[in-house]
Amino acid sequence: MHVLMPVPLPALIRQTLSQHFTLHTLWDSADPEALIARIVPQIEAIATGVAILAEDHHFPITPAFMQHFAHLRLIANLGVGYDNIDVAWARQNGIEVTNTPDVLTDETADTAIGLMLNTIREFSAAEAYLRAGHWQHKAYRLSASLRGRTLGIIGLGRIGKAIAKRAEAFGLRIVYHGRHPQPAVPYAYYPSLIDMARAADILTVVAPGGPQTRHMVNRDILQALGPNGVVINIARGSLVDEAALIEALTTRTILAAGLDVYANEPHVPEPLLQLDHVVLLPHVGSGSQATRDLMSQLVIDNLLAFEKGEPLLTPIRDDL
Ligand code: DGY
User: Fold this and answer.
1) Exposed e or buried b for every residue in 264-288, given b needs 16+ CB within 10 A?
2) What is the pLDDT of residues 83-104, one digit of tens each?
3) Which amino acids bring their CB within 6 angstroms of ligand 1?
4) Are residues 140 and 234 in the same domain?
């Protein structure tokens, strides 16, 4: 089987796919257009990935790109998120898409909790204070607290539920917003995001990126969250209106934010870098070696299953 890889995926994937398939790599080709023209009739699968997992190569898999390949039947994506692919078009045109869920759920939920604690208790700032020698003169200031807070989760999928489970152990009250109520969960459902923002004082963003969720957390939502409010985003930068967030932080409309993702990665807006009530991580949600290897293996296993005519391991479902 001929497989096209438009972006530099991790070595584990590259090496294993080269052993099993004829692998065509696009990003290092001197003449990508000529390469595509030459391999068009042979390509049955594309192995690609979200930019953070592909050395920051942004390569949207658009209808125009997919249309080149008449025999394309599978796109195996590295990443639980799939906003780099027009999945609706692929499905309508008989192309299956897989992602890498489950294996990263716990790692990502851990990151969300770590970011939440760090943001509210100011651990990064406190450490910087110590390293700068200020403790010698004065104890670090008192921070806000997690106690008595309500956590509002936007997107109660697999990762959202893993965050909720951890947050229960911290004694937080949990509420959620999503497209549908989930009768099996014990948390209150808010069909309206603004109503949830009024009821919560931590807003954690875990929903998929893409046009439907773009700027869901906007000026009005931030105002509803209020002056004790904290925004945690471990999903995609596109879900939060970054300009509105910067304004809300600057005017103290909300208390603080903890961000692992940004609208235009790896670019982080300068005003965010200047604020001291923001914790900024470089999109490390799933970023342990062990978890990234499991994600890579899932890309490989989906391609191998496809070639053998076996069921795909992780065809895309709508929840992360
Ligand atoms: C994903 O998987 O979509 C994350 O953004 C990176 O792990």
Assistant:
1) ebeebeeebeeeebbbbbebbbbbe
2) 999 999 999 999 999 999 999 9
3) 50, 52-53, 79-81, 104, 285-286
4) yes
Output the CA 129–ligand 1 centroid distance in Å: 32
> Is there a catalytic annotation at residue 96?
no
In this model, does residue 319 exceed pLDDT 80? no
Domain that holds residue 35: 2-101+290-308
Convert the pLDDT of each residue in 15-31 to its tens digit.
999 999 999 999 999 99
Return d(Cα 117, Cα 82) in angstroms, integer: 28
Active site residue 24: no
Output the six-digit token pair for 132. 């700068």
Whether 85 and 10 map to the same domain: the answer is: yes
Packing angle of the helix pair 105-121, 123-131 (nearest 10 deg)? 60
Do 164 and 208 lie in one domain? The reply is: yes
Quote the pTM value: 0.96
Can 122 be counted among the known catalytic residues?
no
Assigned domain for 87 exists: yes
Selecting among 107, 236, 242, 292, the annotated active-site residue is 236
Spacing, Cα 260 to ligand 1 middle (Å): 11
Distance (angstroms) between ligand 1 centre and the Cα of 216 equals: 19
Query: What number is the average pLDDT over the span 217-237?
Result: 98
Q: How far apart are CA 25 and CA 18, in angstroms?
A: 10
Residue 317 within any structural domain of the chain: no
